[in-house]
Amino acid sequence: MGNKAAISLTTGLEDSEKVTIALLVAVGAAESGRPTVMFLTKEAVRLALAGTTVGVACEGCPSLPDLMRRYEAAGGELLVCPVCFNAKHLDPDGMISNATLGGSVQLWEWIGDGATTFSF
Predict the structure, then answer these.
(1) How far is CA 33 from CA 21, 81, 96, 120, in A?
(2) pTM greater than 0.85 (yes/no)
(3) pLDDT tens digits, 16-45
(4) What's the CATH number where 63 sits?
(5) Which structural domain, as residue segments, surrounds residue 54?
(6) Hey, CA dihedral for 8, 15, 22, 54, is it positive or negative?
(7) What is the β-pairing status of strands 36-40 and 116-119?
C-alpha cells in the first residue's frame, strides 16, 4: 500500500467543477491503493449527505454520483467537520456510509506520520 492522501475540500455544489476536480484527485489516489481521506468543511459538508451529490459539472466531466461511488468502492473515507455540519443543522443520520464526523484532531490522527495533501 502506498502513502496516504488527504484532500481538503471547502466547496460544495455551488462550484461543482471544483468538487469534480477534488473527487478526481481523491478517486485517483484511492483507486491506486493509497489510504485516502477527504476532509469536508464549510459547504462541502453537505456532500456527505445521501442524495446530495448529483449532476455533472461540465461537458465531458464524469458525473458526481459516479465519482462518489468509485471513491467509496475504492475505500475512500470522508471526514466531515462537525462544527460546520452542526452549524448548518444537518442530520448525521442522513450521512453516507463512508462519512464520519471528525475535526482537526481526527484528521491529524489519521495523517499520523504523514500524507500527501491537496486543498480545494
Answers:
(1) 19, 25, 21, 22
(2) yes
(3) 999 999 999 999 999 999 999 999 999 999
(4) 3.40.1260.10
(5) 5-119
(6) positive
(7) unpaired
